[in-house]
Amino acid sequence: MSHKQAPLVRPTWRFLSVHPAHFIAFGFGSGLPQKAPGTFGTLAALPLYAILMQWLSPAGIAWLCLPVFVIGCWASEITGKTLGVHDYGGIVIDEIVAMWLVLLFVPVTVAGWTLAFVLFRLFDILKPWPICWFDLRVPGGIGVMIDDILAGAYAVLVLLIIQHFYPLV
């Protein structure tokens, strides 16, 4: 996969400050760790979502995901081109937006958020069909963003099934 390639530039805090797209694509710095950047990006989504909950309704957060998705496509495209790697692992704005969408479907409890986090990471890492198809064939920023939205959709589906039998209250 292309995101396993070595980048042309080593991403650092300095790299993030060169262009706003880099700062956004790297999830405000949460994608900088060398190990498991997607996990760190997903973790960063949690406090950001908690802050959004103070100002927006669930519907408001859902609507906010649309422009953040579009901005994420732009930022991922620019950052991927600069790095010379289409879907570099440190680009985590896709994890953030997708995790926000998943969190809309669980109660604000430790159990709800933990299960949402684990299921999203599982589907994001395993990339079952058709996620893997999109991951390999859709270029540019939208390609970076769409596979995580699909992983989020899988997580939501499983969460809804689980909550049907075992409410996460």
UniProtKB/TrEMBL annotation:
It catalyses: a 1,2-diacyl-sn-glycero-3-phospho-(1'-sn-glycero-3'-phosphate) + H2O = a 1,2-diacyl-sn-glycero-3-phospho-(1'-sn-glycerol) + phosphate. Keywords: Cell inner membrane, Cell membrane, Hydrolase, Lipid degradation, Lipid metabolism, Magnesium, Membrane, Metal-binding, Phospholipid degradation, Phospholipid metabolism, Transmembrane, Transmembrane helix. It is found in: Cell inner membrane. Residues 24-162 form the YutG/PgpA domain. It is a multi-pass membrane protein. Lipid phosphatase which dephosphorylates phosphatidylglycerophosphate (PGP) to phosphatidylglycerol (PG). This is Phosphatidylglycerophosphatase A.
